[in-house]
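Blinded run. Sample ID left blank on purpose so nobody reads anything into the name before looking at the predicted structure. Input follows.
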Amino acid sequence: MSVVVPSFNQGTFLEECLDCLAHYPADVCEILVMDGGSTDGSVDVIKKYEHRLAHWQSRPDGGQAVALLEGFRLARGSIFGWLNSDDRLIDGALRTVIEFFGRNPSTQWAYGDHDFIDGEGRRLSSRYVAAVDYRELYWGNRYLPQEAVFFRRDLYFTVGEINPNLPLTMDYDLWLRMARVATPGKILARLGQFRRHSGQKTSDIDAYHAAADRNRSAHPAPPPPSALRLMCWSMKHATYRYARTTTDHGILSLVTEANARRRGGRT
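Blinded prediction complete.
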């Protein structure tokens, strides 16, 4: 696998990010760190892990999307993913991903579930997204957990690379392009941890949704769903959330997880 880590002045969290990747052997996980010229001590953190990195650089790069574009062009793995430098993977996540793709050789891309964590790394809540296809991804306002999405190299280059002109929604744009070619697989496990903190780009969620709506209009629109289909989608996701929440955290956590969703991920 190849995991690209885009980063800029996230030295506070970067070590946790790299640490969750570096304990995998090099023949399991290739790590590429694309730093945008940080001035906060990030380079010192990167150098601490230099022995484990396939590539790293620290220079102005035009932003996160450009860093990802350059990183994936350097990557040599057969499965790609990226991990933003303020996020983490759950222990064993990459082996779970590798095993899933090994059991499902025709699956071109897949995603799991994820946690929300705070600035200190404490779990706030979990988010569970049931299986979706292109139609639901387009019409259903479903946003896949980026740090829990992985895709085959061939698919990435077939649908076209990361769009460097989309600073907020480069992920959603890529998911739509991949979903038009291949329906994603669903990994029944929590894989990533998305950190909520004041310095992140997506702290303005309304701006992200507005950008996603603009981006969506650039893709071919599938037939719109009926009211019954929308209801079925909602029931599917509610059932999945219930099943996974009780499996992962126990039945008593259902209320706190529901409250957490109303509070934007905070229990």
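Unblinding after everyone has recorded impressions. The beta strands are 2-7, 30-35, 55-58, 79-82, 88-89, 109-117, 123-127, 149-152, 185-195.
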